[in-house]
Amino acid sequence: MARPEIFFPAVSWIRLGGLMPGPGAIAPRPAALAAALLAQADLERLIQLLARDHRVIAPVVRDGAVVCDEIRTAGEIAFGAVTEQAPARYRMTMPGDHAARWPTGPPATPWKRVLHPSELTIWRAVRRDGRLVFEPIDSGPPRRLALVGVRPCDLAAIGRLDAPLRDGPWPDAAYAARRRGMFVLAVQCTEPCGTCFCASMGTGPDAGPGADLVLTELDGAGPARSLLEARTTAGAAMVVALGAAEAPEDAADEAHLAVDRARARMGRALDTSQLPARLLAHFEHPRWETVAKKCLTCGNCTFACPTCFCTTVEDRLDLAGETAARLRRWDTCFSVDFSYMHGGSVRLSPRSRYRQWLTHKLATWHEQFGTSGCVGCGRCITWCPVGIDITLEAAAVADTAPRTGPTRRTGAHP
Amino acid sequence: MARPQKPRLAVWKFASCDGCQLSLLDCEDELLAVADRLEIANFLEASRAVGRGPYDLSLVEGSITTPHDAERIHAIRRASKVLVTIGACATSGGIQALRNFVNVRDYVSAVYPTPQYISTLNKSTPIADHVFVDFELRGCPISKTQLLELVTAFLHKQKPAMPTYGVCVECKRRGVVCVAVAEGLPCLGPVTQAGCGAICPAFGRGCYGCFGPKPLPNTAALAAHWSEAGRRRGDIVRAFRTYNAAAEAFRRESEAHDT
Fold this sequence. Notes:
- The complex is a heterodimer.
- Chain A is α+β, with helices and mostly antiparallel strands.
- Chain A is built from 15 helices and 16 strands.
- An eight-stranded mixed sheet of chain A has the order 3-2-8-9-10-11-1-12, with helices on both faces.
- In chain A, a hairpin with a 2-residue loop joins strand 2 (54-62) and strand 3 (65-70).
- The longest helix of chain A is centred in the C-terminal third of the chain and has 20 residues, at 350-369.
- Chain A starts with a helix and ends in a 16-residue tail after the last helix.
């Protein structure tokens, strides 16, 4: 089995950045293979270059929110959108002074929609001459994907999905097909939102591994300028093809400072030191019951989460009994049926369902994949209809001194 | 070789608007396939011809609101091998269960010029309060997809694939931006059973709860959140008192705010 570490090399510069917040902390930076100073017009040419042999997905405005969808021109990108994000609250505005800037914060819909579709027919069987013939359905996208405008937290989330769905012992064919040859342009964060805590999770506001191009918006008067850095040869080829102005030497420092300032302005924080052990020491903490009283078990946190990937399958027959299809759909550990086994569900109580989600995300994910399942995007806080805050819940449990004696029971206890 | 006799289908109506029965006619393309596989023995909305029982599959629409209907449902149960209730009226009492919160006699005398001709019960009750029900299809109206899934599962002797999770699951799969969070609209999606495909949120409205409460819904937390957001008690009562007003979880929550 390919270990996740292969895809999360010991990138000490991210970890260092995550653990030493503050405007003064200067972390070592990855070297760019090529760098250019990008004007708004260059971006349109970049999109056109990508669109030649990619299906380009970018943040766009729909229904009063920023969502990820296919674009054909740079003009469709949600430039100028500012998102106010707080527990159970999301409001998008278009203030004039932000006009040419990338939309702030993570989009309302996670990028996983593109890589791990919410509904997918995985096979179909037809009765032909008295025999059942199975027909594979999903052969992946007809064109390679290009994700444009991916925030660092979401970039890290793609890495988290790669571990089980692409690099694990049982790769997911649909995911791997979409992931193959994918191009990523990441946009580093200079304006975090109220629910952001990527700095705590070591996934931002600077972009970690996984991007071909990394863009940083530069401040200053005059027309909008961005620094575009290539991290891969594919990215470098794109910079060369663009023929944009070469970046002045101080642009990289300027970009780094802008991102570092964002690190100090995170809306939220989570102390991640020894977090898995501190959480798993408190399986019977009264806080689980408190949060369960508020939790609607709607599962919105899991669908908004960029790393939750659970699915269920349903078999569909036609009336005549001649064709059958297996449909795979997103599922959530918050529904009663999710843990249904012979005789019933093993996680009936909302307490056990919330605890399962939080401890998997922040603790047992480490045991499985060597990383946290949380990238600190804050979507679960924003999109929870009653505003449950994972950073507060985790801290309330983990900050309690452990009791003596065994605390983690092994059996199911609904 | 002669085909084996087709299973016989019957459709029955109690206190209801006929909308759920209409979903069967609304099957359009699939209707011929249904008629090919089932003998439609009794379906007054489609044909005057009434075939005698017994019936293999009875679809029952509507709630019990009169002493006469309370008797009639027993005869239908006796004549049916499998009895499936269709729609909010049949599964929870429907919109007419609003009478359960008032004195129905006050309304009878206000509405009818000669109230002595009206023979009605104090409460509108679901079919399952009167006879054993094999399966329930939720919704106001039911979903055509779920109806076809039910008929298909019945024909192939399978368990129908019916979700018991909330509307939010369908809403998020569909990629709808949450109207509760992004627009501050009151939405019953987190406590309502899926099945509709999250129609209302997809068109910018909060969920009205047509499919009734999902299993173990936390209606109290949703109502508490609305209170904190400044919604009045009367609005909370009305939100839970619509098509499934008498469904246990919704009834309890509306009564908790009705003082």
